[in-house]
């Protein structure tokens, strides 16, 4: 699409949100400072500030006008000094934040590895055989729709306190995503490439190694991403109900101690933790694994250009974000694997 | 010398009401270092024939035999879309179809990459190349196995006219140099007349309708009156068979 | 394959028999699939029944039969409809607010500045476990009714936003341009192109949103509520009646699954049938 096109018609916006976007092209030749102020980077910086202001305002309202609206409302200072203490290793909880997250991460890692192993086998079977698919299908859907609360409770009852319960919960929450993605990967097998290998008389082992496995990779990766995001949520619930340590247990510790600032501070640590993984680990890994796929980056660029109201604005904003839409939404299916089922990912 | 023998070849897809006959009683003998083009309307079974000859598909019945001096012949295939492994570099794509990975083999692959003028692109991924370059990699891959028989299924139909033209010239040179047997499927009668010794015309329903010899010397110039006459003759045959109807 | 079909028996009479053979083969396939599916049910239900009482104490893991019986008892006690109604009301209100908020954010995100502003909000909404919101709202609001509502909104709005934003981004510009070139007015354009285009996206958002909303609702009720499924679960666990506890959640799970899989999917298929035809 050409620049003139974009300028003439701001596309979706003119029907959906007329006054927010339509005015942008008219001001395209505005001062650079104005342009930066209107950029998405500015919005991004504004977000935490606005949140903080709303928070302070809420405290104001609670203390002066409406005192019975809440039980407690901690101040930002309380929360941030709590977080600072945690991050420097001073804590009233039995373990500091690094040990705590370390414990949880280990459980998550073990659970994910098991889920990936079993899920891959079942997914391969379901993709290759209609009968195996008929055998498992409804149960995969049923397990997928099960609230992790149920798993967490069941596992804490079944396995008592310790590592086993949380790990099994991670396996059970993660496994349907792995199965569905692998099945989708098998169903989308690149038959043209198999035919090619056949025409050249390539051996079976080589075909598996160079065609089948690489073609499954994007699906496996999407599976890992979902299993991670969902397994993490399941793990937290499991640790709350059946743990004696770990991140979930610790936030429950602060909850039971009635330290609201502790709960909120810990929740913010959760957010930081998840973002670190999502943005750094998975985006890096994805870049490494799929370096052969230049079109991914190309697509992102195109998307971003489409995002931008005008070409000038696009270049002016030094918003280096790979944070296009798809990335922001957390776990992203590398190739739209699993469609419906997989996207039903973000359960409580 | 490569020998291709096809006897009573019949191929159908599907069963019952949605049965499709793709090839109907095809008989064919090809031998020696010839460049054979197969032309015909869309859906008349050209790709199916190539897939059977190359072993991708099996015939419903009938026999196919491809030998080189009595032993089974080595085959190469250039597809309509390049069909490269997107997750392997250009060089690894060539190595993927080789029998071994020795230094010698690598050198040979490099030589064929040079031949299609992509000697410096060995470390690139296919996604980083243009469509024409990818197709050239596909050609280099097919030649790099040094096959006795080379199958090509509309290798230039996705490309723009200029790229296609230069690739045709390149192909012609490579064929002259290596003297393989080439079976070349195309929609483009001009292309067939320019490149081949022999043109097989297929009609709807998968019959082999005509078999035309093209004895003119290479390289052929489209502007040459003799070539133009030959082309007009092939077109006339087409009209008689009715093969052009949906082309 | 070549040997199997070596003789060509295709004259007029065998052809009908061949068609019959094909139909028979298809029927066999269908029966096979059903048989395997039933085998799957038998296997998993059997495993469950076997595990209860043998691998694990019955009081901890009631089997399917026990669950059904417990449900019968709960139903007889008359608590079930009230608890369901309370939870469903909460889901309804919370989800309605989440929908409005989420859709508004999805629309606002078309603007670059606001996109930056809400981007992190959406990421946080998607990645933060619902349990965290449940705990935060529980500790701040105690037993007040808007605690669970806020938790529901915070966990579901992002999903709606994402779907709405995606739908807007994929608006068929070519069709809109076409309509403009024919001088079709804004209102007609919205009615004929924009809304039909967005509806499936929004519906998908609703479907996913619901599947999350009900889970979070139950979870928040466990921590801070004096009615509903979650509250009943908390009561049961405090009395150490574990089969009752599991039965509550399983009952609501089955109910939600039916709503989601049957009702919502039927609606989707009914109203958005044109989508499938385009896809295929
Ligand atoms: N795998 C298949 N399953 C079912 N039908 C097939 C299959 N492959 C080919 N056919 C059918 O066989 C017939 C011949 O197909 P084929 O691909 O050989 O045509 P073609 O001559 O190569 O056409 P084109 O010039 O368009 O490539 C077509 O009617 C096609 O629909
Ligand atoms: Mg073809």
Automatic annotation (TrEMBL), chain A:
The chain crosses the membrane at residues 45-69, 108-128, 140-161, 167-186, 207-228, 263-282. The keyword NAD does not apply. Residues 1-26, 313-348 are annotated as: Disordered. Its main location: membrane. Residues 101-281 form the ABC transmembrane type-1 domain. It is a multi-pass membrane protein. Gene3D superfamilies: MetI-like. Belongs to the binding-protein-dependent transport system permease family. This is ABC nitrate/sulfonate/bicarbonate family protein transporter inner membrane subunit. It comes from Plantactinospora mayteni.
TrEMBL record, chain B:
The keyword Nuclease does not apply. Keywords: ATP-binding, Nucleotide-binding, Transport. It comes from the Bacteria. InterPro entries: AAA+_ATPase (IPR003593), ABC_transporter-like_ATP-bd (IPR003439), ABC_transporter-like_CS (IPR017871), ABC_transporter_ATP-bind (IPR050166), P-loop_NTPase (IPR027417). Coiled coil: none annotated. GO terms for molecular function: ATP binding. Residues 4-229 form the ABC transporter domain. It holds the Pfam family ABC_tran. This is Nitrate/sulfonate/bicarbonate ABC transporter ATP-binding protein. It comes from Plantactinospora mayteni.
Automatic annotation (TrEMBL), chain C:
Pfam families: BPD_transp_1 (PF00528). Its main location: membrane. Residues 1-22 are annotated as: Disordered. The chain crosses the membrane at residues 31-51, 91-109, 121-140, 146-165, 198-217, 245-264. Keywords: Cell membrane, Membrane, Transmembrane, Transmembrane helix, Transport. CDD domains: TM_PBP2. SUPFAM superfamilies: MetI-like (SSF161098). It is found in: Cell membrane. Belongs to the binding-protein-dependent transport system permease family. This is Nitrate ABC transporter permease. It comes from Plantactinospora mayteni.
């Amino acid at each position: 699409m050409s620049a003139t096109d974009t300028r003439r018609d701001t596309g979706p916006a003119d029907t959906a949100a007329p006054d927010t976007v339509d005015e942008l092209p008219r001001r395209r030749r505005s001062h650079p400072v104005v342009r930066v102020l209107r950029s998405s980077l500015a919005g991004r910086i504004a977000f935490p500030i606005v949140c903080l202001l709303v928070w302070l305002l809420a405290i104001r309202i609670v203390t002066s006008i409406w005192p019975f609206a809440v039980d407690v409302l901690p101040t930002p200072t309380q929360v941030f000094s709590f977080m600072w203490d945690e991050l420097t290793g001073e804590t009233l909880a039995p373990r500091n934040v690094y040990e705590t997250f370390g414990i949880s991460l280990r459980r998550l890692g073990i659970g994910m590895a098991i889920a990936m192993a079993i899920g891959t086998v079942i997914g391969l079977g379901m993709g290759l055989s209609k009968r195996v698919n008929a055998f498992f299908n409804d149960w995969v859907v049923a397990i997928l729709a099960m609230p992790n609360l149920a798993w967490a409770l069941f596992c804490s009852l079944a396995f008592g306190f310790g590592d086993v319960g949380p790990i099994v919960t991670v396996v059970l929450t993660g496994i349907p995503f792995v199965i569905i993605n692998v099945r989708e990967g098998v169903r989308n097998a690149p038959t043209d490439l198999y035919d090619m290998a056949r025409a050249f008389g390539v051996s079976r082992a080589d075909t598996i190694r160079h065609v089948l496995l690489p073609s499954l990779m994007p699906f496996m990766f999407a599976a890992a991403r979902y299993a991670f995001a969902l397994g993490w949520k399941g793990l937290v619930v499991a640790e709350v109900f059946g743990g004696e340590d770990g991140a979930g247990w610790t936030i429950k510790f602060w909850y039971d101690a009635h330290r609201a600032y502790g709960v909120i501070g810990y929740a913010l640590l959760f957010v930081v933790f998840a973002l670190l993984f999502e943005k750094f680990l998975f985006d890096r890994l994805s870049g490494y694994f799929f370096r052969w796929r230049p079109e991914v980056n190309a697509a992102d660029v195109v998307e971003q250009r489409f995002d931008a109201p005008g070409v000038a604005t696009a270049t002016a904003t030094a918003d280096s974000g790979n944070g296009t839409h798809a990335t922001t939404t957390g776990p992203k299916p590398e190739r739209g694997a699993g469609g419906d089922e997989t996207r039903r990912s973000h359960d409580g | 010398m490569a020998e291709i023998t096809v006897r009573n070849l019949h191929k159908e897809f599907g069963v019952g009401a949605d049965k499709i006959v793709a090839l109907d009683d095809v008989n064919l003998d090809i031998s020696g270092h010839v460049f054979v083009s197969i032309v015909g309307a869309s859906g008349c079974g050209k790709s199916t024939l190539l897939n059977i000859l190359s072993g991708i598909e099996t015939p419903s019945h009938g026999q196919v035999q491809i030998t080189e001096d009595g032993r089974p012949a080595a085959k190469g295939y250039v597809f309509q879309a390049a069909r490269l492994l997107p997750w392997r570099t250009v060089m690894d794509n060539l190595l993927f179809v080789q029998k071994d990975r020795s230094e010698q083999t690598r050198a040979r692959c490099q030589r064929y990459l040079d031949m299609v003028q992509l000697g410096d692109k060995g470390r690139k991924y296919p996604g980083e190349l243009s469509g024409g370059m990818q197709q050239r990699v596909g050609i280099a891959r097919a030649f790099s196995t040094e096959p006795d028989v080379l199958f090509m299924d509309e290798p230039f139909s996705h490309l723009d006219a200029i790229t296609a033209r230069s690739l045709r010239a390149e192909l012609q040179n490579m064929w002259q140099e290596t003297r393989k047997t080439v079976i070349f499927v195309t929609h483009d009668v001009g292309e067939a007349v320019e490149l081949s010794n022999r043109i097989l015309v297929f009609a709807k329903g998968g019959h082999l309708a005509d078999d035309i010899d093209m004895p003119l010397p290479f390289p052929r110039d489209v502007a040459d009156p003799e070539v133009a006459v030959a082309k007009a003759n092939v077109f006339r045959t087409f009209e008689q068979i009715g093969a052009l109807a949906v082309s | 394959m070549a040997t199997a079909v070596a003789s060509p028996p295709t004259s007029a009479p065998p052809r009908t028999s061949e068609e019959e053979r094909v139909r028979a083969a298809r029927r066999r396939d269908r029966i096979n699939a059903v048989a395997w599916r039933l085998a799957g049910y038998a296997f998993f239900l059997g495993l469950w029944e076997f595990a209860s009482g043998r691998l694990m104490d019955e009081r901890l893991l009631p089997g399917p039969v026990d669950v059904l019986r417990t449900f019968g008892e709960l139903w007889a006690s008359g608590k079930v409809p009230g608890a369901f109604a309370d939870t469903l009301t909460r889901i309804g209100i919370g989800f309605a607010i989440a929908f409005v908020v989420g859709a508004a954010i999805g629309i606002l995100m078309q603007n670059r500045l606001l996109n930056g502003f809400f981007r992190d909000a959406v990421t946080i909404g998607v990645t933060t476990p619902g349990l965290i919101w449940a705990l935060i709202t529980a500790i701040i609001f105690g037993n007040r009714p808007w605690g669970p509502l806020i938790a529901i909104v915070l966990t579901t709005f992002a999903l709606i936003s994402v779907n709405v934003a995606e739908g807007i981004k994929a608006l068929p510009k070519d069709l809109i341009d076409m309509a403009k070139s024919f001088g079709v007015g804004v209102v007609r354009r919205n009615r004929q192109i924009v809304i039909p285009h967005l509806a499936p996206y929004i519906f998908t958002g609703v479907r996913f949103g619901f599947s999350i909303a009900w889970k979070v609702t139950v979870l928040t009720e466990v921590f801070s509520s004096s009615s509903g499924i979650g509250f009943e679960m908390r009561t049961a666990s405090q009395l150490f009646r574990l089969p009752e506890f599991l039965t509550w959640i399983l009952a609501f799970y089955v109910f939600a699954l039916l709503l989601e899989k049957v009702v919502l999917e039927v609606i989707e298929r009914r109203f958005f049938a044109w989508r499938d035809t385009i896809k295929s």
